[in-house]
Structures are given as structure tokens and as C-alpha cells.
Amino acid sequence: MPSLPSRRYARNHVWAELDGDSVVVGLSARALDQLGEVTDFALRVQPGDELAPGQCFAVLESAKAEIELFTPLSGAVVRVHEGLDLAPATISEDCYGEGWMIALQPPDLSEFAALLDAEAYSELLKTAASCE
């Protein structure tokens, strides 16, 4: 199997990144640009929970909206980013680093491989921008 890019994207602007044998999940910079400053964050999962693709794992409130975040792939929750509820601005400040939200242990990488790579995600953003 050819090597996969370490970060991939779902159409709902949630990113997933390989981290050893787990996949770390967060919200893309594009989504955060649209939402404005993050003012509140609440996880809806804990380690040990089994998630299916499209299952809500958190609720995020920003200056412009309150949204539910849905997992881009299935797997067992192996880590959650404790403390984001106390420092939700971390998500906006470093969405691809310290702003990660959960880590999953997928049963295999097929769902990860099916997510958009950076180029396909960029094309999705161009298409969305032309419709606005």
C-alpha cells in the first residue's frame, strides 16, 4: 500500500492526522475562519467510547455560531484533549497543533484513506467559495 499523507480532511472541515497507530482529529483553519473566535468547547466523548463515522464528538461555540462536530471516521476514542473547555481559544490559535480534540484508534486505515487529501480539500474550498 502506498504511503498516505499524514493529514486528510472531511467535507465537514474536520481534519484527521496520523499519529503513530492513532488518528488525531480537529477542526480546519477554514472552518475556524468562518466561525470566528471560539468561545466555548465541550467534548461529548471519553476514552473507550466507540464512534461511527458522522457521530457527534463535540460542540463548539464561536462568535458567530454553535456547531456540532462529527467524526470523519470510526474507531475507539483513545485520548481526548483535556482542558480545551477551559481554554477554547487554543482551537483558533493552533488548530493543527495544540487545538486537536480527540484521538481515535481506527479498526484499519481504509476510512482515513478515503478522506480528502490537501489538494482535494483545497478544490472543495474553491468550489464552496464560488458558491458564496
From TrEMBL:
Keyword Flavoprotein included in the entry's annotation: no
Alphabetically ordered keywords of this record: Lipoyl
InterPro entries for the chain: Biotin_lipoyl (IPR000089), GCV_H (IPR002930), GCV_H/Fam206 (IPR033753), Single_hybrid_motif (IPR011053)
Record Pfam families: GCV_H
Domain Lipoyl-binding: residue ranges: 22-105
Entry annotated with the keyword Isomerase: no
Organism domain of life: Bacteria
PANTHER family: GLYCINE CLEAVAGE SYSTEM H PROTEIN, GLYCINE CLEAVAGE SYSTEM H PROTEIN-RELATED
Descriptive protein name: Glycine cleavage system protein H
Species of the source: Nannocystis pusilla
